[in-house]
């Protein structure tokens, strides 16, 4: 099945499949099918293991399947859901996951290059990304619910004195209300 999907992609991909298949046929493994061995060889080549490299890589595979086909392997899987448009481009990310993906972290820190706690104007680089609405209370992992905070202010925000005293507005603007009910507004610096 993998081979058929890859072959449809074009002549260059066909050559890669033929190369992987040729290497897989040299592997002696009676416990695996040729397709399983093809997959192992392809992963070894992509990860650099085939030539002794320690390079890391990530392989994302998009396969159209029915719900019934997905149920069995998904029972024990760590699923990361990407929402795609008809052309295959990513249009959304599973916001139920706690840790934001790298692209989202970069986007939030580009939007807010400084930390968002009132008076803490250090650079966002190396800061925590805080869920404005806490994740455990249903706050999504999305740019409109994340902001950079230093570890000290992140922990302070989570204490009993600060709950529900932070609101995030479009464009990375925040309104903080202190335990003494003083209101602070923070905005990203103009570029």
> What are the low-pLDDT stretches, counting only 5+ consecutive residues below 50?
1-9
Tell me the fraction of residues in β-strands, as a range: 5-15%
Judged by helices, strands and strand pairing, the structural class is alpha+beta
Shape: elongated
The SSE order reads HHHHEEHEEHEEE
**Biggest β-sheet, characterized?**
3 strands, antiparallel
What's the rounded overall pLDDT mean?
76
Distance linking N and C termini: 50 Å
Q: Percent range for helical residues?
A: 25-40%
Radius of gyration: 23 Å
Number of helices: 6
Strand order of the largest sheet: 5-6-7
Number of beta strands:
7
Topology of this protein?
Layout: H1 2-7, H2 11-24, H3 34-47, H4 67-74, E1 82-84, E2 90-93, H5 102-111, E3 128-131, E4 146-149, H6 151-157, E5 166-169, E6 173-177, E7 183-186
Antiparallel strand pairs: 1-2, 3-4, 5-6, 6-7
Would you mind describing this structure in some detail?
This protein is of the alpha+beta class and 191 residues long. The chain has helices at residues 2-7, 11-24, 34-47, 67-74, 102-111, 151-157; strands spanning 82-84, 90-93, 128-131, 146-149, 166-169, 173-177, 183-186. Helix 2 (11-24) packs across helix 3. The longest helix has 14 residues, at 11-24. The protein is elongated.
